[in-house]
Specification:
- About 4% of the residues have low confidence.
- A hairpin with a 6-residue loop joins strand 2 and strand 3.
- It contains 18 helices and 3 strands.
- By secondary structure, it is mostly helical.
- The protein is 52% helix and 3% strand.
- The chain has a 3-stranded mixed β-sheet, sandwiched between helices.
- The protein starts with 10 loop residues before the first helix and ends in a 7-residue tail after the last helix.
Length: 401
């Protein structure tokens, strides 16, 4: 009888890999289709995994196989940050999905930097604003918008009929051109995370939740860009009151205010026919009118109404009364579209969204230029070799005007 080869790995490394993705031993065992006590026995040094089992563990823990053969857990690797959460999110440990997305962000960034070094083409840094930053957040927002519009590789979707996807695609393309790595999360629930940012002087990262509507993703995107401009990192929050008690809450409120001003510039909002027809602090804003006005910016009705409040064109009482109704309608529409889609859609379009168009273009271009081989490109995209051409096709920049 042929004996199955075992992997002589340190129990402490196995424990570190499991804990770094937020799984308890029983859950890890079940994800590997093993008896409930198997992972615990590995970590206690009572058993050794087979090579095949270790490969499965590498997939579950989202780690390279080679990391399991380290003599000890790597020190200072994968340090977790104290990101902010949505107000309704449960405090405590991150979900395994959020752990995975955080690490994927770091890994994709490392791959992108490796390609940049091979090509001798450092990433752009035009996402940074000149310092010191001005005092006023409206001024910072105008500078953000102007900086991105100057370098956007596609025209601005300035028709009222432009879809929210066109607006989102425009701002993502501009941020990628400015030297920011942008992609969408694959499996994190929206209630836990709308978006997060990783601040680095070179090639910072913005992640938005792929389960959110494009309007929600766009606001999260600019919220997280505001974090980068302020030299911070965070998990997207919905707090809007800058009088919030804690510094974190105040920062989230400030980033929301900057994002709103960048997405919906004061002069453009006040010039809209819908706004001109309702002078003063009007409370005559029905849902259809709000949606029509918000569509000019690719924003949600709730975000537009909040912007009206900031600009003194509605009342705090009306905003609070209307906000909950608009959020409920937003969630109902999101649920309806999910049900209608049945979880389907084009595989390549979704995959490119999750990886980030700019990142896919970077990897497939490096492969075509022979900076990396085909198998390395497939590894960087977590794809099969035969899928590379189709991924490259769906990552192509297209005019959205």
């Amino acid at each position: 009888m042929v004996r199955t080869p075992v992997a002589h790995v340190e129990p402490a490394v196995l424990r570190w890999a499991r804990e770094s993705i937020g799984l308890i031993p029983v859950a890890a065992s079940r994800k590997m289709n093993l008896p409930d006590d198997r992972v615990a026995r590995w970590e206690a040094g009572e058993e050794l995994p087979t090579i095949a089992q270790l490969r499965t563990a590498a997939k579950v823990y989202k780690r390279p196989l080679s990391v399991f053969f380290l003599p000890r857990p790597p020190a200072g690797f994968d340090v977790m940050r104290d990101f902010r959460r949505l107000p309704e999110a449960t405090e405590g440990a991150w979900s395994p999905a959020l752990h995975g997305e955080y690490r994927r962000a770091l890994q994709q960034r490392e791959f992108a930097l490796e390609i940049a070094e091979l090509a001798d083409e450092p990433p752009a840094r035009t996402w940074r604003l000149p310092e010191p930053l001005p005092e006023g957040d409206e001024v910072i927002a105008r500078m953000m918008r102007s900086a991105l519009q100057e370098i956007a590789p596609v025209p601005f979707p300035n028709r009222r009929s432009s879809s929210p996807y066109e607006h989102l695609g425009y701002w993502i393309a501009a941020l990628e051109e400015a030297g920011v790595l942008v992609f969408a999360s694959q499996g994190v629930e929206k209630e836990e995370m709308r978006g997060f940012s990783l601040y680095f002087d070179q090639l910072p990262v913005l992640v938005v939740n792929g389960k959110d509507f494009p309007r929600g993703r766009l606001f999260s995107l600019l919220h997280e860009y505001a974090h980068l401009v302020l030299h911070t990192a965070g998990l997207c929050d919905t707090i809007t009151d800058q009088r919030a008690l804690t510094p974190d809450r105040q920062l989230e409120a400030r980033c929301n205010a900057i994002a709103a001003a960048a997405l919906m510039p004061r002069d453009q909002v006040l010039a809209l026919p819908e706004v001109v027809a309702r002078p003063g602090r009007s409370q005559q804003w029905d849902n259809e009118t709000l949606q029509q006005a918000a569509s000019a910016f690719g924003a949600s009705s709730e975000a537009f109404l909040r912007r009206l409040l900031t600009l003194g064109r509605t009342t705090e009482q009306f905003y609070r009364q209307k906000r909950q109704e608009l959020l409920e309608l937003y969630e109902e529409e999101l649920a309806r579209r999910r049900e209608e889609s049945g979880g389907g859609g084009n595989y390549y379009r979704t995959r490119v969204r999750d990886l980030g168009k700019g990142y896919v273009r970077l990897v497939t271009s490096a492969q075509r230029r022979r900076l990396i081989d085909t198998y390395t490109a497939a590894s960087f995209l977590d794809a099969k070799v035969q899928q590379l051409d189709r991924l490259a096709e769906f990552a192509t920049l297209r005019d959205v005007a």
